[in-house]
Structure prediction request, 814 residues.
Amino acid sequence: MTAGAPPPILEAVDVGYCYPGGTPTQALEGLSLEIADGEFVALLGPVGCGKTTLLRIFAGFLQPAKGRVRCSGASIDGPGWQRGYVLQEEAIFPWMTVRQNVEFGLLAKGLEPDDRGKVSDELLELIGLTAFADAYPRELSTGMSKMVEVVRVLATDPSILLLDEPFGALDAQTRQRMQDALAQLWAQRRKTVLFVTHDAEEALYLADRVLVLSPRPGRVKATFAVEIPRPRSLDTRFSPEFLALKRQIWAAAGLEGRFIR
Amino acid sequence: MVIARRSLLWMVSLLALIGVYTLAARLVSRPDILPPTEEIATAFGALLGRGVQLGGGGEHAHHQHHPDSQQMETLLQEGVTLQAALAVTTGRVLFGLAVGLPLGALFGLLLGASRRADDYLHPIYILVRSVPPLAFITYIMLWLGHGEAHRLIPVVYAVAVTMVIPTYHGARDVAGKYVEAARALGARGRLLLLKILLPASGPAMVGGLRYSLAIAWMTAVGAEMLMAENGMGNLLVGGGMWSSRLQTRSDPAVIIVGILALAAAGWAMDACAKALGARLTRWARA
Amino acid sequence: MSWTRVRRAVIGLVAASVLYVLAAELGRGRLPDRIWLGAHYVENVQLLPTWRSLLEEGTFLIQSNILVESVVVSTRRVVLGLLLGSIAGILLGLLTGAASRLEALADPWVTFFRFTPALALLPLYVVWFGYGESSKVLLIATNVAVITFLGAHHGVRGVPRVYLDAAAALGADRWLQFRKVILPAAFPSILASIRVATGLAWVTIVVAELINAQMPSLGYLLALAGAYPRVPNMLIGLATVGALVLVFDLLALLLHAWGTRWMERAA
Prediction:
């Protein structure tokens, strides 16, 4: 890091975390990474490698046992709207309408109803759910439910988005559509995104940089710069550069070959 | 099973219940243990009527079957009617709910939402809840005298204690992820409590409400059986005060009428609670 | 069980005891010791007895065998009632759960017992079975039966269809399905209801014994302590009941944990 350059927007230095309990689990150990402003970074790794743990540390729900994490140079003391966090589980508020969900962060900020309405109108149109504005979440499909959660977190205009396998529960086609929707959203409102996934193709398709994590205890095993131009489309998925990168990532992540570990 | 067929079987079973009972009563032919169905009806009428009349048709005929039971007489003498007694007990139940539900729910939410509070306070809660509320009643009497308070406090206490656990599980198991998402959106304090924690724990609390209802009825009736001059519990043990209860020979017809009335009231309140709960959680997925 | 939690639990309990001691000491001079009991005054009542007087009374009660006998008698009734009631309730619940026709038939009976407050049946049982053991044990048994019935019924009904289909597709007949699929799947619900029933059994017995107080029983102890009144005895009686309830609850909890050891646990 050159002197005088602004601090990375997200930074982890030698982070370690251990889950207590009957069998203590060392989720992360010696993990370091830096993320610059406006980057779309994918965290790739097999199930159980600590990706969610790292995300939760950045979100402010956990404190690292060792090492430290910083956001724009300052330490992270707890959750806040500046680091928008979308959980892996379904967390859309079922007792509120879609619009009320989207406006919730603004409500917490203390905006007036009219101002909130303007923002939610815009965002709902962005994901094409204007017709469902006053519907309850139970009328939505899982995919759209997740998009509402993403857009809910965008409403407060945070500079950082932390997304934990948001499309994990979806079928292949819906997932691709959601990925395109997310890419489009990101193109329009450039933010720093840390996106956790176990799907190498998804990581490649969406990100500028892919960080491969080792299995438990997690640390950064490899980094790949994705220089494929945007906007990316279905064709991109079959282009030679894409496939070559994919093969490299698979090798790095140890995903090839063996059926049984 | 088709609904119609179910209701039919239900009715059949109900009629069978009454029929079997009537038959049994007639066969056993011991009216002081199994009063014949007509007598139960008579007792019902007598208890509904203007309670102060002695020597009217209804309970006089009744008295002929039960020469040694003074329960009916005592009750009528004291001017006890079924409706009045039921109203009194219902009042106590409602009071207990009105005060106990919020107390229990607040405590449950606190324990469920804050790990620290849970660690410190849960053991104390377990100890406290292990003591049956009605056992306290004489102790409370020493503090507050022989008044309404010492009948109401066990009910409030029982309701509060019962409400804690379902609310606790609702807040801890269900609401957890919603609270996190809300905090990640910048919510805290009152907004978090009112708009997130409370609705998310709602369904669990409704279950707790129905359970607390049953407990409230039981405790109120029990308190009345132990020491009250009015209410259903009092009716069931035959009026009179604490010491005379053990001597009064009970009249089963009166008791059965009382029990049926209580069951009906309990069922009605539960149905209301269920309907109320369904309305409040309309947003919930099936 | 992490040490932080144990430490905090101990702190909480110690703090509560300290608060009580403070209250008792403060109360010594200030609380009234002359109580109006509706018909007469009673002198020398310690509303908040100090630990020392509790200890003295406690020792006396144990040494004179009063406490022990009462505990034995009351516990015996609870255990009998629990056994009787759970066997009856579980069997009925399993039957009606499996056969919906039977369920519709049993419904009015169950609804009736369910909505009758447990204690209301006591006078009736006394008329039918006299003042002795049977009426109390049967009262407990009735309540326990209702609760375990609901638990068993709900457990059977709640077995996910998929398991039954999978078993049938593997060639299991109805009886095997019942033994090896329905029963184990219903176990958690049954055991949970046993836990609830245990608590209720104790509540029932205490009140039943308070109303029909006969020596020796815990209810009688409490009633006697209330009649004088002797507050240390009362508190000791309450604490004993509480301790017994706790022990039984713990046993029921262990039973539940054993029966659900294959289930996933929430954190």
